[in-house]
Amino acid sequence: LGNVAPVLGKRSGLNDFFGWMGSNFDPSVTWRDLEWVRAEWKGQLVLKGVLDADDARAAVDTGADGIVVSNHGGRQLDGVLSSARALPAIVQAVGGQTTILADGGVRSGLDVVRMLAIGANGVLLGRAWAYALAGRGQAGVAHVLQLIEAEMRVAMALTGATRIADITSDILSR
What we know:
Blueprint: H1 5-8, H2 14-23, H3 31-40, E1 46-50, H4 53-62, E2 66-69, H5 83-94, E3 99-102, H6 109-117, E4 122-123, H7 127-159
Parallel strand pairs: 1-2, 2-3, 3-4
Helix pairs in contact: 4-5, 6-7
């Protein structure tokens, strides 16, 4: 747990980590708290972890500049809805009113194309580059990004999309 050692100490274990994580979750947080953050923070405000259309509307109404449709890689709550399943309803609810980013379950260039096709304005990568960084450092990250790009190009070619803007729901099989 080297990435949290500065906070927990070098001899901390998994139980210490879970305790620390639990202490960072505040169940009393409400939309009013986000309104306060928005009033105090004049910069861009992007809210991550939105999986519900009503929450997406509330985020927009509260002044979020963007949302990230994310189930946090499924690590927070077993059995939670996947980002890809949640995305269409959220796009229908707030698409065009705010920037919609998506993450969770994105492992390939085809996954990136799929998220764009179902309405995301952009797609975030987590594990792919993190694993590449751990395995080969900067060269690993460069390599995984090249792979993602190549897979996107193949998916686009096979669906007739010549530009990112051409990636729309029309390329999906119904």
